[in-house]
């Protein structure tokens, strides 16, 4: 048996290594995605912070006045543009981040190690989220305001018989975006029920996709219809049709302009034309 458990991930970003290091550390509060399960204290989180230098703390900040909160880790290596490492304060995970110059920019490599007999109580989360979250931030950091994009105070959970398949379909047909990689298609048993938590961000709201609590569900008995506002209603309808959606009601105007589509399990969705002032 190996003495350690090792997990890796990587992302290439189109900036130089020193800029990548700075964005990773100084701007962690801007690229760490807010969400119901993306922190230890989601209900208290006001900021993420990486304190510079060896001995600095990786923090979930809960108090703006004092800057204190939950210490996630202590920095053990600080070589700007080259190497960053920390030891988790909550479990036995060590994270090493290497910044390697490439022709296109910088390859950011992460490795998590857990000693034999050690525990992982969330310390390896950076391995999973960094490629998507940090990569997306670096892509937009020169054109986006340096402001925190937090989520609104309303979220919605929808239950599906096959949530993983439904989530992939919603991303393809309706263009919903998830802060995390969606689960791959399963080859074994397409009829099996999944027990997944899958989160989309639609504007500044969270949409969670989960498995059914009780079966079956008859969507012909409409109890609620999610509304989503989009910029180009005609283009969105064309995408939905191409993705296999049934158009239950074409584009109509009643003070607002919208259409209704049925998703992969027959649930109704209304897509309406967004106002120019509505935030994306």
Give a structural overview.
The protein is an alpha+beta fold and 280 residues long. The protein has two domains: 4-140, START domain (Alpha-D-Glucose-1,6-Bisphosphate, Chain A, domain 4), CATH 3.30.530.20; 155-273, 2,3-Dihydroxybiphenyl 1,2-Dioxygenase, domain 1. 18% of the residues lie in helices and 34% in strands. The model has no long low-confidence stretch (mean pLDDT 88).
Key words describing this protein structure:
14 strands; 280 residues; alpha+beta; 2 domains; 5 helices; 2,3-Dihydroxybiphenyl 1,2-Dioxygenase, domain 1; 7-stranded antiparallel sheet; 34% strand; Alpha-D-Glucose-1,6-Bisphosphate, Chain A, domain 4; 4-stranded mixed sheet
Question: In brief, what are we looking at here?
Answer:
By secondary structure, the protein is of the alpha+beta class. It has helices at 17-26, 28-31, 125-140, 163-173, 233-242, and strands spanning 4-13, 47-50, 57-61, 69-79, 83-88, 94-101, 106-115, 155-160, 198-202, 205-211, 227-230, 246-253, 257-262, 268-273.
């Amino acid at each position: 048996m190996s003495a350690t458990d090792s997990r890796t991930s990587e992302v290439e970003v189109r900036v130089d290594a020193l800029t990548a290091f700075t964005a990773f550390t100084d701007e962690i509060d801007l690229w760490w995605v807010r969400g119901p399960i993306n922190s230890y204290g989601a209900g208290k989180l006001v900021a993420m912070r990486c304190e510079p230098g060896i001995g600095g703390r990786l923090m979930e900040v809960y108090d703006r006045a004092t800057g204190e909160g939950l210490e996630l880790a202590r920095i053990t290596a600080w070589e700007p543009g080259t190497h960053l490492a920390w030891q988790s304060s909550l479990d036995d995970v060590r994270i090493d981040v290497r910044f390697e110059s490439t022709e296109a920019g910088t390859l950011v490599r992460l490795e998590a190690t857990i000693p034999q007999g050690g525990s992982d109580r969330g310390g390896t989360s950076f391995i999973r989220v960094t490629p998507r979250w940090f990569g997306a931030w670096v892509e937009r950091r020169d054109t986006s305001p340096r402001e925190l994009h937090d989520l609104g105070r309303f979220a919605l959970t929808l239950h599906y018989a096959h949530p993983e398949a439904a989530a992939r379909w919603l991303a393809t047909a309706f263009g919903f975006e998830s802060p995390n990689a969606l689960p791959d298609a399963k080859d074994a048993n397409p009829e099996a029920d999944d027990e997944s938590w899958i989160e989309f961000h639609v504007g500044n709201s969270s949409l969670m996709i989960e498995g059914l609590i009780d079966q079956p569900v008859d969507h012909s008995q409409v109890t609620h219809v999610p509304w989503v506002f989009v910029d180009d209603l005609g283009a969105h309808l064309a995408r939905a049709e191409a993705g296999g959606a049934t158009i239950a009601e074409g584009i109509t105007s009643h003070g607002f302009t919208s259409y209704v589509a049925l998703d992969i399990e027959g649930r109704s969705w209304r897509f309406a034309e967004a106002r120019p002032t509505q935030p994306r």
